[in-house]
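ARCHIVE CARD
Drawer: 12
Card no.: 0347
Subject: one protein chain, sequence and derived structure
Cross-reference: see card 0346
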Amino acid sequence: MRSSDDRLAILLNINQNLLAIKDDQIMIRLTAYISGRVQRTGYRAKVVSLAKEMGLVGFVQNRPEGLVLVIAEGENKDDLERLASAIKIKNALIDVESISAEYSHGSGEYSIFRKITGPEEVGERLDDGIEILKELVVGVNKLVVGVNNLNIVVNNVDVGVKKLDAGINNIDVGVKKLDAGINNIDAGIKKLDTGLNNLTTITKDGFGNLNGKMDRMLEKQDETIEEIRGLREDTMRRSDPRLSRIEKDIRLIKSKVGIR
């Protein structure tokens, strides 16, 4: 088991090694002067938040000439360039006009990123309050936009409901018309069935009557032929003696006249 003194010596050694490693690391510094509407607007609080998110150290400070000074250090120049781009803020309160940025070797003297306030300022909470106010203004604007969008959605829903009601009514009307059409089709089919039945009956009756009439006509034809034959025979029987006498008279006349 190690004693407490041994453990303390080990911890001190580890700490010294970490400090040595940190001293060996090359820090890069960003020095930026920002102009525009950047003082008393919550701008410094925003810069502090961005720098801490990127793991940078240094400070942000208001300058008497109306500028804001940002000193940020880090091991990666890309992080510093991202910060320089991110602090070009424009919103309801902040309006950055220009940023003058320079990069150099860092001193490694900073352990955190903080906001420096001057004696003429009411206190550090002022910027925080302004930042909160700015966020509140932005939130109110978003709320107004959201309410307007909600009203538009509600109106669209109302229009959609009305169209849906109209569509349902049209469907009801269509269903009723469809039912009426089906009823008409059923009635038409019934009439067609009745007509077919009547046609079948008429056809049967017609052919039956026609057959009967044809039979009667054939019978009358046979009777007429028989009558004609009887008349012919009677005519022949009656005309033969007369013809014989006429022939005799003609021959006699010819003999007398000398005609052979």
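Annotation on reverse: DSSP finds four helices and five strands in the chain. Residues 25 and 75 are 7 Å apart (CA to CA).
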